[in-house]
Write a structure and sequence with these properties.
The protein has 2 helices and 5 strands. A hairpin with a 4-residue loop joins strand 1 and strand 2. A 5-stranded antiparallel sheet has the order 4-3-2-1-5. It has 110 residues and is an alpha+beta fold.
């Protein structure tokens, strides 16, 4: 697991703890809205209180309560700006970039 994966895992863990509502857009264009019940290092997500965003297009999916979504089938995860601590996320990204820069510098000195 690389450090950028850990940033996203931490972000989604915070969203889980806040019971934030997210919209998950799948690669097959289905959009599901719900709360994150769990997330793992592969960004597999278990959503609770799920509703299909475009119900008229996918009526067979309407009665979903909870679902498990494999990380590899996710295209986007839409978040509310209010649920994201931008400063914390930017600091984590800066720290990761600095660490990567140091690793590259060390590798070129060999």
């Amino acid at each position: 697991v690389c450090s950028s994966d850990l940033i996203f895992l931490s972000l989604f863990s915070v969203l889980r703890d806040r019971h934030a509502v997210v919209t998950v857009e799948l690669k097959n264009d289905i959009q599901l809205r719900g709360t994150i019940d769990s997330v793992d290092q592969y960004l597999n997500i278990k959503l609770g209180n799920v509703e299909v965003v475009n119900k008229e297009q996918y009526p067979q999916l309407s009665p979903i309560g909870d679902c498990f979504i494999r990380g590899s089938v996710i295209r986007y995860i839409h978040l509310s700006k209010l649920d994201v601590d931008e400063d914390l996320l930017l600091n984590a990204a800066r720290t990761e970039a600095e660490e990567l820069s140091k690793q590259i510098g060390r590798a070129s000195c060999r």
